[in-house]
Amino acid sequence: MTTLPALEYPRGMKPSFIKIICFGDGYLRMTFPQPWFDTYGADLTTTCKLKMSSGVTTTVGITKTSGKTYIEQNWRDFVYTHTIEIGDTLVFTYDEGRDFKVIRFKANGCMPDIDITGPEEPWLGGRRYYPDGTESEDSDVEPPEM
Q1: Which of 11, 29, 90, 94 is most exposed, with the fewest beta carbons within 10 Å of its own?
Q2: C-alpha to C-alpha distance for 50 and 19, rounded to whole angstroms
Q3: pTM of the predicted model, to two decimals?
């Protein structure tokens, strides 16, 4: 099966899927939904680019096995760089060729400010939740004076 040409997408829409980051695989790799991959992703190469709404782009590696396809190489760097946490929802929109636009929503249903303003924010703040169930110690840290 091959990827549908852009002209065949209904009303200008592009193929998208969501992933909710959970304990376990969410930090180690991202599994493509098999129905999405069967319809749109058969022509994906071994690398693709993930572009956050802030404009920051990360090149990641795709691993295809019998029955499943993952983003593994550089996925952990992507998760760490963008402070993706347990409970975050990522919306992936396939943007032709090898590119995905990624929009993130926190567990509260809102986009984080850093995803809107871009990487120039001097302080991210907040608490991080790690796959082993531990939390970061930086929740009481105050942002630096501007």
Answers
A1: 11
A2: 14
A3: 0.72
